[in-house]
Amino acid sequence: MRNNIAERRLDREWTQADLARALGVSRQTVISIERGRFDPSLPLAFLIAQTFGCRIEDVFIAEKTT
Length: 66
Description:
The chain contains five helices and two strands, in the order βαααααβ. It is mainly alpha-helical. It has a single domain (2-58), classed as Orthogonal Bundle (434 Repressor (Amino-terminal Domain)), CATH 1.10.260. The chain starts with a strand and ends in a 5-residue tail after the last strand.
């Protein structure tokens, strides 16, 4: 699964720390999610989408497997 969190965050001129504060998580968590090393829980994924004012499918993109 990939995501576009970093692009959305930068469009708002937010730092990783700004986003972490908005989500109530650590900056390390934001870094891990942005880099695809960690998939957030469903409630956190919904909160991320809500924070950016979009749908969860707009932030998280499932990669096709063959």
